[in-house]
Each structure stands twice: as structure tokens, then as C-alpha cells.
Amino acid sequence: MPLSLLLLSLLGLLFSPSNSLSLSFPLTSHSVSSQEASLSLSIKTKSHGKFPFQYSNALVVSVPIGSPPQQMDMVVDTGSQLSWIQCHGKVRRKSVKPMINWFDPYLSSSFSFLPCNTTLCRPRIPDFTLPTSCDPTRHCHYSYFYADGTLAEGNLVTEKFTFSNSLTTRSLLLGCATASTQNRGMLGMNTGRLSFISQAKISKFSYCVPDRTGSDLTGLFYLGDNPNSAKFKYVNMLTFPKSRLSPNLDKSAYTLPMKGIRIGNNKLNISPAVFKPDPSGAGQTMIDSGSDLTYLVDEAYSKVREEMVRLVGPMMKKGYEYAAVADMCFDGAVAAAVGRRIGDMWFQFENGVEILVGKGEGLLTEVEEGVKCVGIGRSDRLVTESNIIGNVHQQNMWVEYDLSNKRIGFGVAKCSGLKA
């Protein structure tokens, strides 16, 4: 949908063309219940800077927003469009929870609310899960829901991202959440017109997520060219015409032409049609940095579970189901033995490309103390008919999103301890 002149004036280019930009984000990988580590982000331009970064089953970057900058924790999410930050005003300062990283609009000279009379505040704008509306103060109100049931709502605003004195964004559109079910904001990285990369005109980014069982839990994230890309295997993304009307299709997602799943030497008897969107969009296979687990439609999940029962059925935790989505789970004491019996798991794509997505015990993820599960859930429990490749199956590999060439690159790597 074409942008109005007003919207175009609000967006524009993120960085000055004179800057050769490469952002590298060290990552850590561990369960949500584990203590989070303090990390750093380095920007390689004519000037340099370091910023805090954390990872807890999601990529979480501390982004400098506002004038003067306030450091805001935001999840890097390739599965969603709208970027938003946790907001509060002066009246709420005393009640701020210490675990939530709040942005104070009153402290920023570049902060601006989006008024109700802008194009984006019209009720039929399709970029939000609920229609935008006009609040009592004549500011544009939004609501954004996610597949896992979490939500954020507040006002649409414009604000600057300031990485250094020589690297400052123009005002970008984002959400200023006054109510949410999360304790961090979101950096929307899909291909939607309002996403961070779309507004910033960024054509390539990549990350390397370390495994969760090692002693060194740091990896890297690049915004821009990746020096390792010559060794990547590339899979062409599926794209869809804007005119296509498919109720179950997410046209802004990174959709992959997945063909099958192999466990050890056994290629599972799953029809390739299961991974391809039908006329309604059901069966779409997406790669998503913001999802911890991988989710499969029922036919694919059932075939994977049948193979797990064949390989390690007696070791499964009887009657256990994690978060009502995953039931291939084990006591931690037998996890190593389970991993040895399962072996490797591969995802298969077009042109014969196979990607190793887990090996041995690395296929399992700790969901609570003493319990590990194969990192796959049933997508129908999320009220979706899609396949979603989560970050649990993106460990120890480079994943590159090359928008210019409409492809996703994969490169085997030992992600722990990588240096920019």
C-alpha cells in the first residue's frame, strides 16, 4: 500500500549514506529462568561505541532512543513489524517496576505523539491487529497482539535513535506502550512497511546464536554485511503479491520453501505440501528470531513425535506437556542419553539444501529446572496454521536475511565467543 506524503515525511532514511554501517551484537543463550548476562554492542563506523546487550531465549538489544538518549531494552524480532518501547510519564515514576526498562517521554526533546488526523490512525489501516483509534487526548492509539497471546498497546509516536554523535536517526515511527504483558520492548524486523529495517532502508542483517549448554554463551549479530557470507548456503525466500487475499498468510514474514525433516538417516514421511502455503495461506513456513521454540502444523508435528517415540519413547516424561504446546519432554538426568539416541536433525529446503538444526543433546531445551524438551511445539495450540522455525533451531549457525536478493543464508559456525 503506498505511503501518504505525511507518512513519508515521518519515516525517511535511518542512517547517513556516508556511514558504512556494521552493527555487531554479542549474544548469550540460556533459559528464561537463568540470570541474564551483561553484554555489549559495538558499532563499526568512523566512530565507535558500545552498548549493553542481553539474550534470554531472544535477542535483546539495549538501544539508545530519544534526545538525550535513554537506553531501551528491545527484543530483535524478525517475526513482527511494529517496534515499540515501554513508556511511562512523570506521574508513574514512583510505581515503576525495577525489572521493566521504562522510557520517559518527558525527558526527550525529540519525542512526538502521532495525532489522530494522520493516515496511520485511520481505522482500516492493516498494519495493526486491532484498528487504531483516537484517545481522549487526540493521540493515535494502537493495540498489537502476538501469536503467543502477549500484547502491547499505547500511542504511536516518532522518536530518534542515537547511536553516537555522528550516527543519529531521523525520527522513526514506533509504539509507546503504556500496557503490555512483556518487560521489554520490541524491535520489529520483518518486511512490513513500518518495521525498523523498512524505515531504516536496511537491506541485510545476520546473527549467530550460541548453544545453551556451553560455558561461553556469547555470539554475534550484524546489521549490514557479514564477513563470513561467502561460506553461506542460500535459500530463496517465497514472496507473495500484495493483491493476494489469504486469511492465514503473513506476507511480511520471511517465508522459506521447506521440503522436509530428516532425523539421523531417516527422512520423515511428511508431504512437502505441509510446509507450503495453500490458497488460504495455511502451511506457511517462517523463520522467526523472536520465537523461542519451533512450531509445526499437526501433520508434521505428529511425524516428528512418532520418530521420537520410536527412538526414545521409554525415556519420555509421561503425562507431561510444556505450556500446552510441547509433549516430547524428558527429565534432565536422561537428557544426554536421549540426545545420543536421537542424533542429528536436519531441515530440508529447495535445491537440495539441508541445514543441521540440532545435534544430540543440543536438540533439547530446558523449559523448567530439571526438565528438557525437544524444542518443537504444536502450532495449532497457538491458533495458527503455520510452521515457525524458532531460535532454538538457529543455534550454532549464521542466519543472514538478505532482502536485496530475497534470500536467507545459513552458515555452520561455533557461535560462542565470536569476535566482531
TrEMBL record:
Family membership noted in the UniProt record: Belongs to the peptidase A1 family.
Lineage, opening ranks: Eukaryota, Viridiplantae, Streptophyta, Embryophyta, Tracheophyta
Gene this chain is encoded by: LOC111438856
One GO CC term on file: extracellular region
Peptidase A1 domain location: 59-411
Amino-acid biosynthesis found in the keyword field: no
Identification of the protein by name: Aspartic proteinase PCS1-like
Residues making up the signal peptide according to the UniProt record: 1-20
Keyword Protease appears in the UniProt entry: yes
Single GO biological process annotation from the record: proteolysis
Native species: Cucurbita moschata (Winter crookneck squash)
Single GO term (MF): aspartic-type endopeptidase activity
InterPro entries per the UniProt record, alphabetical: Aspartic_peptidase_A1, Aspartic_peptidase_AS, Pepsin-like_plant, PEPTIDASE_A1, Peptidase_aspartic_dom_sf, Plant_Aspart_Prot_A1, TAXi_C, TAXi_N
Superkingdom of source: Eukaryota
One Pfam family recorded for the sequence: TAXi_C
Alphabetically ordered keywords of this record: Aspartyl protease, Glycoprotein, Hydrolase, Protease, Signal
Active site: 77, 288
